[in-house]
Amino acid sequence: MPRVCKVTGKKTEVGMNVSHSERHTKRTFLPNLQKLKFHSDILNRDFSLRISTAGLRTLTKHGGLDAYVMSKSPSRLTPEMAAIKKAINKKVGAAEKPAKKPVHKANRSARLVKKVEARKAATK
Questions:
Q1: Which residues pair with 38 in a beta bridge?
Q2: What is the mean pLDDT of the chain?
Q3: How far, in Å, CA of 36 to CA of 25, rounded?
Q4: DSSP 73
Q5: d(C-alpha 112, C-alpha 81), whole Å
C-alpha cells in the first residue's frame, strides 16, 4: 500500500542524511500517516482513510468529511475523495432537484417575434 495521504496527497520523499563529515547517504522522509475513520452524515456510512496529521487539521477546519469534499472541486481532490463527492452529489441531487418547467412552443415563438420587432424598430 503506498504511503499517500488521501486528503493532502503528501507522499514519501527522498533526501540525504548528512553526517558531521558531510558524507551524503540516501534516506526517505515518510509522511505522518494515521488510519482514521470518518463518518459521512449524508451517506450515513463510515470511511476508513489513511491521512496525514496536516490532512486531519484540514478536515477539522472545514467541519468534517462532507463539508471538505463539497467545498472542493473534483479536480483538486484525490481520486478517493472525488469518488466520495460523486456519491454525495448523486444522493443529494436525486433528493433536491426540482423538475424543470417545460417551455411551450407558443411562448417561445411569441418571444422571438417580439425580439425581431424590437430589432426592426431600433434600426429604423
A1: 47
A2: 87
A3: 34
A4: -
A5: 46
Grid cell locating 5: 495521504
Sign of torsion over alpha carbons 25, 26, 29, 35: negative
Contacts of 83 (CB under 8 A, 6+ apart): none
The helix/strand/coil state of 119 is: helix
pLDDT tens-digit readout, 67-90? 999 999 989 999 999 999 999 999
Cβ atoms of 25 and 17 closer than 8 Å = yes
Backbone angles phi, psi at 21, to 5 degrees: -85, 10
Q: What is the pLDDT of residue 94?
A: 63
CA dist 63 and 42 (Å) reads 14
Phi and psi torsions of 3, nearest 5°:
-90, 85
With a cut of 70, say whether residue 10 has pLDDT above it: yes
Instruction: Determine the residue type at 12.
Output: T
51: exposed, middle or buried (C-beta count within 10 Å: 0-12, 13-18, 19+)? buried
